[in-house]
Amino acid sequence: MNILIEGIDILTADPAAEFIRNADIGIADGRISFIVPAGHVPEDFRPEKRISGRHRLAMPGLVNAHTHCAMTLMRNAADDLPLHEWLFNKIFPMEDRLIDEDVYWGARLGVAEMIKSGTTAIADMYLHMDSTAKAISETGIRANLSRSPMEFHSDGELKAIDVFGDCEEYFRKWNGSADGRIKVYIEVHSTYLFDTVSLRRASDLAKRLDTGIHIHLLETAKERKDSFEKYNKSPLEICAETGIFDVPVIGAHLVHISDEDIGLLKKYDVNAAHNPTSNLKLGSGISPVPEMLKAGINVALGTDGAASNNNLNMFEEMHLAALLHKGIGQDPELVSARQAFMMATANGARAIGLGEETGVIRAGMKADLILLDMDKPHLVPMNDPFSAVVYSAQGSDVDTVIVDGNILMERRELKTIDEERVKYEAAEISRRLLGV
Ligand SMILES: [Zn+2]
């Protein structure tokens, strides 16, 4: 459908033209076909739908570079615990009870929440990933999905099961599907769940399929300590040695990293997904983001799963990422509003392997954009648009969401998801998982 957004201010995430006032945006065939001064629409453009830009701000849809969408089912179910106890004693037993249909509804709930708070692309790794792919395909957002080649079950002790064949089959089934909205990477949970043999096999598989890897890296001090005890090496050295870093990588967390680790991230061009809320909530620590940015590492933002956040609202992550490092470093110049905005948009798209397609509002890019309702007391006067988005705006200010040229939300009404049904199904499933 051809869409014309009329008379709107645009925060583009394109360094060549960061803020454009009073423009018209034309959308055709899923892409941004032009951005022109208001009233200068090419004569041959025939819009089927017009959207007023009055009191609105257009910006790229946010990119959630690390999440586990269906963990919405475990929201508010196990909180205020250390990561290992939380993961092994609370989350893994609940996950053992999950069936495909649960993940389908949990993922739909997660997507509903993310569309309503302005996210248009995600990187997700979880269980029963066919269900997540189905939910992504039907709801219209864009995703980098990864399925693990190893499965871990925890009835008493942790058992690892080889499912490399299923992992490859998942890639062949979903990569490039949903009109190209789904990209598939390989999930490697972490260097503490995978041994070096499986790490090597996973990197070989990624190379053979010409794809990337999504992995949790150095989330806790314990992970670092255990790795040095077991290998006398940092998890990042293990990744470099086993070929994990030879392919594009989304490295989630990167909290407990040394200067040597930052050198490795830079050397192998590893993308960092910073998850400030999750890291704070699980008491994991604070990632040295200013140091990574200074070293030229591509830093993106993620919410992590709703079991450790406990929402999937990227506006909160942007806000926190911009504030946290100023406080810790006692320096108000660390992580500017502009940097936080870029982390949540262009950097995020690049991190999840979609930098050529999305993350920026520019003619030729995919039409993945959101409109904020700026006619609110907390957004007047707007003044600096980066500050307005990062320091003042809320996820609930997102009014309209467009992905791949399709309107997924208009005036806060979801177009591809029956919100009442999703809330009902997910709440029922959650009750069963928790045994209440
Ligand atoms: Zn995670």
Structure characterization notes:
By secondary structure, the chain is an alpha/beta fold. The protein contains 16 helices and 19 strands. The protein has helices at 83-96, 100-116, 129-139, 164-174, 177-180, 196-209, 221-231, 235-241, 259-267, 276-281, 289-294, 314-329, 337-344, 346-351, 385-392, 419-434; strands spanning 3-11, 19-28, 31-37, 49-52, 56-60, 62-67, 119-125, 142-147, 150-155, 157-162, 182-188, 213-217, 249-253, 271-274, 299-301, 369-373, 398-403, 406-410, 413-414. Strands 1, 2, 3, 4, 5, 16, 17, 18 and 19 form a 9-stranded mixed sheet that branches. An 8-stranded parallel sheet has the order 6-7-8-11-12-13-14-15. It has a two-stranded antiparallel ribbon with strand order 9-10. α3 links the parallel β7 and β8. It starts with a strand and ends with a helix. The mean pLDDT is 96. The protein binds zinc ion (ZN).
In short:
With 436 residues, the chain is of the alpha/beta class. The protein has 16 helices and 19 strands. The mean pLDDT is 96.
Name a few traits of the molecule:
436 residues; alpha/beta; nine-stranded mixed beta sheet; 25% strand; 19 strands; 38% helix; binds zinc ion; eight-stranded parallel beta sheet
Number of helices: 16
Distance between the termini: 46 Å
Helix content: 25-40%
Q: Enumerate the spans where pLDDT stays under 50 for 5 or more consecutive residues.
A: none
Output the structural class.
alpha/beta
Our estimate of the beta-strand percent is: 15-25%
The averaged pLDDT comes out at 96
* Strand runs, count: 19
Gross morphology is globular
Bound molecule types: zinc ion
- Biggest sheet record: 9 strands, mixed
Please state the CA-atom Rg, rounded to the nearest Å. Answer: 21 Å
